[in-house]
Amino acid sequence: MRIFGWLRPKKPIDKPILAFEDEYIVPNAVMVMPVNRRARKRVDPRQGTQVLIIDDSSSVVGFLSELLKSVNCLTLEARDAESGLEIARQERPHLIFLDVMLPGMNGYSALRKIRRDPDLQDTPVIVMSANEKAAEYYFGHHSDADDFMKKPFSRREVFARVERLLDVNRAPRRIRQSDIMDGPESV
């Protein structure tokens, strides 16, 4: 039996009506086409993009590191904010994934230090947390983060967040409020 797309009946039916030898028509059905998430080719960061992952969870660091290495990114890892800031100052990564809940200094304090450092202030930062209040804070207070990911997250979400921050040369860049306000119609 072949059914083209997905058929979702508007109301319960007893049995489908035979239309052709091996095809069925469902009366009073709405045609719902399946979404092909691979219809559009994903845009990955350019080869050699340095990404710093600051998280105290080894499973999160391992997951992100493997994903990013699969698209030829170089990953740097830190288990706390203090060592993450030190690595960021030494290596100057192109992108930072920063957990909110860290031992010692929390992620928001680390983010404030990143934004105050002239050498790091233009580095895009994706904040991560499993805490609902952290998500509310990000969306309610417009923190200096460039994006937010709620844990647990999928491979697809990680690549979508990274892709959102890429410029035309596939390099991560900050999205500033002025970039949003001064869109193509103001040119």
Question: Widest sheet: strand order?
Answer: 6-5-7-8-9
Total number of helices: 6
Under the CATH scheme, which class of the largest domain? Answer: Alpha Beta
Tell me the overall shape.
Answer: globular
In the CATH classification, which architecture of the largest domain applies? 3-Layer(aba) Sandwich
State the secondary-structure class. alpha/beta
CATH superfamily of the largest domain: Response regulator
Structure, explained:
With 187 residues, the chain is α/β, with parallel strands linked by helices. The chain has two domains: 1-35, no CATH class; 50-167, Rossmann fold (3-Layer(aba) Sandwich). The chain has six helices and nine strands; from the N terminus they run E-E-E-E-E-H-E-H-E-H-E-H-E-H-H. It has helices at residues 58-69, 81-91, 107-116, 132-141, 155-164, 177-181; strands at 6-9, 17-18, 24-25, 29-32, 50-54, 74-78, 95-99, 125-129, 147-150. The chain has a five-stranded parallel sheet, with helices on both faces. Strands 1-4 form a two-stranded antiparallel ribbon. Strands 2-3 form a two-stranded antiparallel sheet. Strand 8 (125-129), helix 4 (132-141) and strand 9 form a beta-alpha-beta unit. The chain is globular and about 40 Å long. Mean pLDDT is 79; it is low at 1-11, 16-33 and 180-187.
